[in-house]
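Quick question: what would this complex look like in 3D?
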Amino acid sequence: MEGPFLAVDWGTTNRRAWRIGAGGASEAEEKDERGMISVPPGGFAAEAAALRARLGDLPMLCAGMVGSNRGWAETAYVACPLDLEAIAAALLWVEPDRTALLPGAAMQGGRPDVMRGEEVQALGAVAAGLAPPDALLCLPGTHCKWAEMGGGRLEGFVTAMTGELFALLRDHSLLGAQLAAAVAPGPAFLEGVAASSGDLFARLFGVRAAALLGRRGDEDSAAYASGLLIGADVRARGVPGREIYVLAEPALGALYGAAIKALGGRAVAVDGRAAFLAGIGAIWRLT
Amino acid sequence: MEGPFLAVDWGTTNRRAWRIGAGGASEAEEKDERGMISVPPGGFAAEAAALRARLGDLPMLCAGMVGSNRGWAETAYVACPLDLEAIAAALLWVEPDRTALLPGAAMQGGRPDVMRGEEVQALGAVAAGLAPPDALLCLPGTHCKWAEMGGGRLEGFVTAMTGELFALLRDHSLLGAQLAAAVAPGPAFLEGVAASSGDLFARLFGVRAAALLGRRGDEDSAAYASGLLIGADVRARGVPGREIYVLAEPALGALYGAAIKALGGRAVAVDGRAAFLAGIGAIWRLT
């Protein structure tokens, strides 16, 4: 399709929405915490109407967890390898000619995996020239998505629970009181990255042992533990000698960038917002 | 010392206490949930008096977290390698000639680690002939302790947060609803053990992906996830071709035994109660 539309990145917790003009540029933008889990069952149509009241009475494309089994309606998973055309061909119109939900992406082979939303960013990054057509992309968050691009397509991906595991340890584990400090990519973080090559469950208990034996102060424990987890995640991707394109908010992107560098790769920061808008704009034109 | 005494295994959550007769045999036994965290600061002497009122007015030896910085009083850590003599030489008498707390054990080298209580079981297992003087012992629980015995001494040990990580995932993570089923050492557990060789954070997310894609029912998810975690723990110990002496309650011991067998070792179940009583009895005689 052509002409203006509303683009929505509707995640689990957060939501971003844009009015995209006839020329393809963003004309208005908002961000709020009306993610999927804050919308009651049956409440999505009213949410879409409220978005239109603020941003314009236009057709709407929604990416992300809004298309999951806890969202507005459950959309299909399109199997890898996939491109923007495959996504555009699998839209679910929940309001005829008005509102469509994007499908998710799946790995259906021996190692099952799923994503909802990050595939738009990954394919958009390549479409906009922010990453080359053959590249490894890193999209960290609660669950870190690693997207392998080939010939501009999403060839495959891996999801690691890295961010959620750190939050579990900090918020609910016996290490919790030690992990309250802010995490920066300094020496303690890099020490954790260096120690992340194996026996991770023992290394994590070592955070407690090191404190009890006076070997590390708790001002460094959170950074060390974060380095352990992010280091183990990065090590599993085969980064030595590779350029990794990182789409992340700056603080988390800096941690992944430092781990990638320490483990022999080179991190290139990519503007995730621009990547998303390029991806969803292309899908709109292909629809 | 000689003569009867009270032996207490005073852990974080649970407590076991025995009256040991002049001949060294248990004459009375109780188990309750008056572990360290349920005793208010300053309340330990009253707890000890209550134990004496029930079991007998005798001297008392207390092992475990009661000697930690949140317990009755903080005792030292004795560095590995250590034996029962070294423990007996480092008792802390919190009530003169009446009540003593055992020290903990520590690894002070490049990889710091600590334990409180399990060293009595490990050394006691060897002293009682339940495990040979050169052996690898496995003591699973919230934190799994792996004790390397050499010449009857505790040469070194590793603590892995395996049990706590499983509880965090089940009780607080996005996988939680999938992990409610009971865990048995069947095919799904062994599938997890087989998949535990690397990229664990991705394998854990795979529990969710497999369910969303209809590849594994949630009746099997908990066993698979447990197999992943226990498998990774066991793999880090170098078990192929070794006999591993497992001191655990039966259900957890069966899981570790199945993982050890699947990974090429041989598990030998050891009576943890008998091992503890042998260890603390020997310490009493050495005091």
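Answer marked as accepted. Chain A has nine helices and 14 strands.
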